[in-house]
Write a structure and sequence with these properties.
The complex is a heterotetramer of chains A (about 90), B (about 90), C (about 100) and D (about 375). With about 90 residues, chain A is an all-alpha fold. Chain A has helices at about 1-25, 30-50, 60-70, 70-80. Chain B has one domain (about 1-95). By secondary structure, chain C is mainly α. The radius of gyration of chain C is 17 Å and the shape is elongated. Chain D folds into two domains: about 1-85, no CATH class; about 150-315, no CATH class. The chains are: A mainly alpha (about 90), B mainly alpha (about 90), C mainly alpha (about 100), D mainly alpha (about 375). The interface between B and D is small, with 9 and 9 residues.
Amino acid sequence: MSELLSVSALGVVFSLFLGLLRILRGPGAADRMLATQLIGTAGVGTLLLLSLLPGQQALMDVALILALLAAVAAAAFTGRQRRSRND
Amino acid sequence: MIDVLSALLVLAGVGFYLTGSIGLLRLPDLYSRLHALTKADNLGLGLLVAGLALHSQELLTVLKLLLIWLAVLAASAASAHLIARHARRQETTS
Amino acid sequence: MLTAQWLYGMSGCLIAALGLRTALLHACLLHRLIGINLTGAGVFMVLIAVAYRGAGMPPDPVPHALVLTGIVVAVSATALALALARRLTAEQIND
Amino acid sequence: MSDTSLLVLDGLLVISLVTLAWTALAGSDARRSVILFMAFGLVLAAAWVRLLAPDVALAEAAIGAGLAGALLLAAVREQSRQPLPARIVSKRSHNKPGVNIALQWAVSVLCAVLAGTLAWALAHALNSAPQNALPRAVSANLEASGVSNPVTAVLLNFRAYDTLLELAVLLTAVLGIFALGPARPGYQSAGPVFDGLARWLVPVLILTAGYLLWVGAHAPGGAFQAGATLAAASVVLRLAGRHQIGLPQGPALRVVMAAGVGMFVLVGLGLLVAGRPFLGYPPPWAGGLILMIESAATLAIAATLVLAFLGGQPRPLAVRVARGRIAATPIPTGKPVSPEGIRSTEPHAAEACHRIQETQKRC
């Protein structure tokens, strides 16, 4: 089982690596944000796979935090501030 | 039997991850790339979570896995929407 | 031979130096800020690499505690710097 | 087989980290750099996991990948919204190219020397036998520390002085932010989709923060991670366009900001009165005292990080009750510090904007 887990984790990290190529290539900021989204999801997948290796249960909590905060960056990227003086 | 099924699900999940990222890399414009990204988020992580949930024995772990999947699903849907809308607005204003 | 330790530690050194160079040379304050943050991240990598004791062994918790607080302090300092930069811009326009 | 694939995994992560750091620092597009820096934070969280530092990975996931990215993106976004004057540029211009190139070379060489020294020290540390005195002392005294997670024991018991001062540093930073002016303007509503997400995400984040605080006693977690998660809940509300984001107002806010340091000092003084050393917990009470300090510290850290995101002193809210629903809107303040407002009132502003724009072209 641990072999399957580590090989799968490698596969997911490779997909993260492909996302990295898109983030470098761009061209627009929106494309880069999409790639960051993929990197986040791949990070969650990697952590889940590694969390089943012995003694690593805590990684599931890390994956949970990553998953819960996945939308914050996109919202900060697209959010528009109020223009009026009194907010 | 369950082990085999779980392994198959995990491997299928990894397959969808790779498909999604290749799509993100190869597809020509932002909107079609958005479509590729959802393969990794929904199906890749979904199958992975299903496989790992089959493998795990504790109910708490299964629930946590489910919560993680739902969180990623909702977050990816929301952020795909936000990014697409943002890109659309940029197009119309400029 | 713990290869992971070497990999992460040495790349930490590289990242710290790259960050410091940008923090000192770049014209844009935001880039400088990212440079300082990356310098911190590189140093954190070195510290955690030193704490690592191999796959089956429990690592040294003291550097972990240092880095943990360091991350929180770094983000607060970044926020303070951003607030300063905002004020600086406003003052420049006022001149 | 398993070891080899993990080794390749480590290699891929390290290559990603160095590439992301390099490209985030190169170039002049601030938004690109911030996005790359955010991706760096995400990959770094995975790296911490590989180095068996789950406590650090939790903090990195909440702060490095979440809050810091949001903070920087919001700053960049504010700049791009105000195209003329507001780019953050250093005033020092590069007007003497010869000196400048010499300076660049000197700094580069200096940084290379620094990297070399650091690498030499690291190699020395890794090649000699690991210094196990501290970890041994930690595990020998873990029983009496009141918690079983060694990182929490170091933070709140063995090196409690450090953490107390750390919280004081956070307080100083947030007081500095307070002193610099009002908060950035709030956000427009992000639309029904994000609003729907925020509706269930915020309670889950608050619940997760409580869980991390509690679990920190015996597993990775604790005040710092819990505080960051709690802060994320407020940031989500802010991004969804709400005015009320759970931050207390007026004097209550100041109490919460100082709660971490205050509780630490109170517990320390209480122990002094009881005849123990400052922050030397009696072992039977240690667990309870640590939880008490950590709860206060969680609130203080969360308030600090939310104020860090706001970027200044929050404007007071006017609460009104209409049709049974409570609505709050910020009370207009006297003179805005925002460059936009200044541009419209100051006659010389246009010239100043132009000058700054000239400097900014080098950015």
